[in-house]
Write a structure and sequence with these properties.
By secondary structure, the protein is mainly beta. The chain has a domain at 272-496: Protein Transport Mog1p, Chain A (3-Layer(aba) Sandwich), CATH 3.40.1000. The chain is built from 5 helices and 71 strands.
């Protein structure tokens, strides 16, 4: 019920160093925490940041490497490798080695620099990687030097200081391989041709092979790749990994039984960054697992895990780089952070953010029966932090009567004089992370809501900060969570900031609906009601206030001739628009492919079902009219003027009678194998079929080809017909405007490449083409009137163009000039087109919000429930 386990991150890490306390005669104190000394920007890729001796090295994919003083973070040296893409970096024997691709090349080159001066030492061009980079050289940099393995040339050893070739070994030419090392030998794990995987040991000075051992007993079919790597092993052992199966050896090549694998696996006494080891893995909310606070550096040097808090939030992915004599270094959220140890008594306030244990508030006191209702049951939870047991509950689950609302879980995540700074850091980290959305309608005033997306689904949480306290809230209901957050903030404000008044939510005329999943289907507005589809349900909302009228199962709303239909992945239903009750429902055997191109027209419901069938239903009753099996895989379906047009992947267009399903005609429109069976649009004037880079217009009555046009590249979108023009978009980013009667090209717009968002609309004498950017054009000549750098999907209403981009921003632009009028940042990714009605712009986001923005200025508003509980 509560916080998702995927938010709890434990990272396996590298080496450790014990930090001792100097004996100065004072009472003994212990290491109880870590304090940030400095931080520096770094790439998200953790291998680009590492500790080498007395240097912290941070590389970027663009080829810039900075060498920093570990004590202060000051830049000692900046090296700029002449590469367009840097792929890896190492440091050994006072030498920096980087691998990267020079400009205008996909092959890699090694560059070496002196770490003290930055002086270039040598460069070495690696063998070509081949087509599609399928034959990348494998590189190992260690105390033995630089070793390169390549399928076409075998093993090569280079001197790390001079770049000179020390030795070659060609035994493994033509093989797939992965180099490794022990303190005394070079290793190669390889598979050649049809053979088994083998392990070879080489003298690191001469590359003479010392011994060979078979690793697998099974052979691999030619052309089938296997994943090969070496795992960290205990001293005296080697572990070869083949497609996830581990094979232990001694360092002299003696194979070991699998029963000794545990002995061979390297002990990991090194620190890690993650949750406190006392955290229980239970279904409820646990304060030590609370994301993003607190964070711990875990040490296992003594056999018993010791958790020491960091003075920064726990990031989504955090790695440990290593330690010097008095500092530790971690990598996460695109930065390297240096930490110094903090000493104190493990049962005192230093271990708890500098606040005595008795000053941590009782979690159950932060919400009251007045806030959540008298029938809600409180379930408090106490936790131990190492040897310290907090005297009051730090978690509290608020459980309503069964079937009467959602559980709200509250945890006191941290109490510290630095809480406001930690809260700010946590919110900034969340905004930057690609897996997390946030909700701007509740930012500020100590409340921050986020939505996390992962393999387990979508999960929401809220952080609240007032004074020294940071609270984390979770609930299956985002609305319950939001309302509880406001109450917690008010109660904390009364306790820590008495007399301060929190202003009520602003009434802008707009509103926000809080769904419990992404809002992902275009809203439909009719008769003062907005129908919106989200992952957790189909909602009918009052268009003016956002109040929920009814909710049903998740589906896409379709409104045709005043009737409401709900389409899902495997069926369609007719729904009473006033009550949400189902009038009829039909489910199809879609065979994993879902429903394609559902169309409702002239009293019929037509759907491409699964791989092979088109099904027609009576719109009034759901009764099946007919079913047609498409020879060859089903392509696309379009309906116009009493006919249903269907393409197949065999390059044939079938035209069916809409009432009876009788085959009127078949037309050859392309070659077989077209995926996904071409693109299609139908009107009463013509049927337009796209197969690859060919566009065809067919007479809707006779099926005869009226014209054909060859385009510069394959088309990946359905044609858009506006007036007497048909618009096509190809994979090169070009837009073609063709005369609907003759196929003559009126004009062509050359874009910046395919964005996957190509769309065309027209209004008031302009045609708007959106994709990699937005263009307003003269529909007759294609002359550009204005353009903007928006990767957008567009709606036009009156004199405003509403363009939503991939960064979650809705732009309102003057339709005549393109001048911005306002912009709104959703905090997520917009997943619906903007729909305008009644002075409001309705648009749905991946963060679970359906926004009704005031069209004049883009101002959002609170949820109706928030207005109801806050005067």
């Amino acid at each position: 019920m509560l916080i998702a386990r995927f938010l709890r991150v434990l990272v396996a890490l590298t080496s450790a160093a014990a930090l001792a306390v100097a004996d100065d005669g004072r009472p003994p104190m212990e290491l109880v925490g870590w304090k940030t000394v400095w931080s520096a920007p770094a790439d998200e890729k953790s291998s680009f940041s590492f500790l080498s001796g007395e240097n912290v090295i941070i590389a970027t994919p663009e080829g810039t490497v900075t060498v920093r003083d570990p004590r202060t973070g000051a830049i000692r040296l900046t090296i700029r490798a002449p590469v367009s893409v840097l792929s890896d970096a190492w440091a050994v024997d006072a030498t920096l080695v980087v691998a990267g691709s020079p400009k205008a090349s996909s092959d890699r080159t090694l560059y070496a620099y002196d770490l003290a001066s930055g002086r270039p030492l040598w460069r070495y061009e690696l063998p070509p990687s081949g087509p599609h980079m399928r034959n990348l050289p494998r590189i190992l940099v260690s105390g033995h030097g630089v070793v390169v393995f390549h399928r076409d040339s075998g093993l090569l050893s280079l001197d790390v200081r001079t770049g000179g070739v020390r030795a070659r070994a060609v035994e493994a030419v033509g093989c797939q391989g992965e180099p490794g090392s022990t303190p005394t030998a070079l290793l190669l794990l390889s598979r050649c041709g049809r053979g088994r995987v083998r392990l070879d040991s080489y003298d690191p000075r001469t590359l003479r092979r010392s011994w060979t051992r078979p690793v697998t007993t099974w052979r691999v079919a030619p052309g089938v790749g296997v994943r090969l790597w070496f795992k960290d092993a205990s001293e005296g052992f080697v572990i070869a990994a083949v497609d996830g199966e581990d094979f232990p050896f001694t360092r002299d090549g003696t194979p070991l039984p699998r029963s000794r694998l545990d002995e061979a696996v390297a002990e990991r006494p090194s620190p890690a960054v993650g949750r406190h080891p006392d955290a229980e893995d239970r279904a409820g909310f646990d304060w030590n697992n609370a994301w993003p606070l607190p964070a711990y550096l875990l040490s296992r040097d003594t056999g018993t895990p010791v958790a020491l808090p960091l003075d920064r939030p726990l990031t989504h992915t955090t790695g440990y780089l290593g330690t010097t004599a008095r500092m530790a270094f971690i990598h996460g959220d695109a930065q390297v952070t240096a930490l110094r140890p903090v000493y104190g008594h493990p049962t005192g306030p230093v271990a708890l953010g500098g606040v005595p244990p008795g000053e941590w508030p009782d979690a159950c006191s932060l919400l009251t029966a007045r806030d959540l209702g008298r029938d809600v049951r409180r379930v408090p939870g106490r936790k131990s932090l190492g040897r310290l047991t907090l005297p009051r509950p730090v978690t509290c689950d608020w459980v309503p009567p069964e079937g009467d609302g959602a559980v709200v879980s509250l945890a006191v995540s941290w109490v510290s004089p630095d809480a406001p700074a930690l809260f700010t850091a946590a919110t900034e980290q969340t905004r930057r992370h690609e897996s997390f959305d946030h909700d701007p309608t509740v930012q500020g005033e100590g409340i921050f809501s986020y939505t996390a997306h992962g393999p387990g689904g979508t999960f929401a949480g809220t952080l609240v900060n007032v004074g020294p306290v940071i609270v984390h809230l979770a609930s299956p209901s985002r609305l319950a969570q939001r309302l509880a957050a406001a109450r917690v903030r008010d109660n904390l404000t009364a306790r820590y900031l008495p007399g301060r008044r929190i202003p009520p939510p602003a009434r802008t005329g707009g509103w926000t609906h809080l769904a419990d999943g992404s809002v992902n289907t275009d809203p439909v507005v009719d008769g003062g009601v907005v129908y919106a589809g989200a992952d957790d349900g189909l909602y009918a909302l009052d268009a003016a206030t956002g109040r929920v009228r009814w909710r049903s199962q998740p589906a896409t709303p379709l409104l045709v001739d005043g009737a409401l239909y709900a389409a899902s992945g495997d069926g369609v239903a007719a729904v009473d628009p006033a009550t949400g009750r189902t009038r009829w429902s039909r489910r199809f055997d879609t065979r994993y492919m879902g429903i394609k191109d559902l169309a409702i027209q002239d009293g019929g419901v037509y759907a491409g079902v699964g791989l092979t069938h088109v099904v027609a239903l009576e719109a009034a009753t759901g009764r099946q009219r007919w079913r047609f099996r498409v020879p060859g895989d089903l392509g696309r379906v379009a309906v116009a003027a009493g006919a249903v047009h269907v393409t197949s992947r065999k390059g044939v267009l079938y035209s069916l009678d809409a009432r009876s399903g009788a085959l009127r005609r078949r037309s050859r429109v392309g070659i077989g194998g077209i995926t996904p069976g071409g693109y299609l649009a139908a009107t009463g004037k013509a049927v337009f079929v796209i197969t690859g880079a060919k566009a065809s217009a067919l007479d809707p009555v006779t099926g005869r080809t009226r014209w054909q046009a060859r385009l510069g590249a394959a088309v990946r979108y359905d044609p858009v017909v506006i007036g007497d023009t048909v618009y096509l978009g190809d994979l090169a980013g070009r837009t073609y405007a063709l005369d609907i009667a003759s196929g003559r090209e009126r004009w062509r717009l050359t874009g910046e490449g395919d964005s996957g968002l190509w769309n065309v609309t027209a209004s008031r004498g302009n045609v708007y083409v959106a994709g990699g950017s937005l263009h307003a054009l003269d529909p007759e000549t294609g002359e550009e009137r204005w353009s903007g750098p928006f990767t957008a999907q567009v709606s036009v209403h009156a004199d405003i163009v509403f363009a939503r981009d991939e960064n979650g921003v809705l732009h309102a632009l003057d339709a005549a000039t393109g001048v911005p009028r306002w912009r709104f940042q959703s905090g997520g990714r917009f997943q619906t087109r903007p729909v305008v009605a009644g002075g409001l712009v309705y648009v749905g986001s991946s963060n679970g919000d359906l926004y009704a923005l005031r069209a004049t200025d883009g101002r959002p508003g609170p949820s109706p429930a928030e207005l109801a509980v806050r005067p």
